[in-house]
Write a structure and sequence with these properties.
With 174 residues, this protein is of the alpha/beta class. Helix content is 49%, strand content 20%. The protein contains seven helices and five strands, in the order E-E-E-H-E-H-E-H-H-H-H-H.
């Protein structure tokens, strides 16, 4: 099994894949230490994970202003919590520039969404309903396509798609 993780300030997105590249599950965890750790431990419990891919939050750190250092420290903290939550043989850090290249966020999210099989779309749709019961997954995709990523719920959808994209990159589906 392969796990890919996109840590964030508010939330951390995780996706699990079979070694064949098929998406098994996707989850968004709210970053509030104790609950986050318990949820993530349940999500990964009892699963033999060969590779854990974590988006490298230090990429581009040289360009940060002093005020952004606190945010970066928080991101690194949640990356560490995520890495410690996954019982795996190997942890690989992957920089966004490696798996996304220079593709803009909205274009990459639409590309990832387009690569999902119907059953996988349903998994993402179900996870989206948990944090956005009134706005459909397809509406969030429409917002992303039009570069309207201002709502928290739509940002969470992009986090889910990023976690999936990291895994897709690793298994060659991107």
């Amino acid at each position: 099994m392969i796990v890919s993780i996109d840590p964030g300030i508010r939330d951390t997105a995780a996706a699990r894949f079979k070694n064949s590249g098929e998406l098994v599950s996707v989850r968004l965890f709210h970053n509030d230490s104790v609950r986050h750790l318990k949820e993530s431990m349940r999500f990964f419990a009892g699963r033999a994970v060969e590779v854990c891919l974590i988006e490298d939050q230090w990429a581009g750190a040289a360009r940060l202003d002093r005020k952004d250092i606190g945010l970066l420290k928080d991101l690194c903290y949640w990356s560490g919590v995520a890495a410690c939550s996954v019982p795996c043989e190997r942890v690989d850090r992957i920089a966004p520039v490696v798996w996304k290249r220079s593709t803009k966020k909205e274009k990459m999210c639409m590309h990832i969404a387009g690569r999902l099989f119907e059953e996988e779309v349903e998994m993402v749709r179900e996870e989206t309903k948990k944090f956005s019961p009134r706005v459909s997954y397809s509406m969030h995709l429409q917002n992303i396509k039009q570069n309207r990523i201002s709502s928290v719920a739509t940002k969470r959808v992009t986090d889910l798609l990023d976690a999936i994209g990291i895994g897709f990159y690793h298994v060659g589906r991107l």
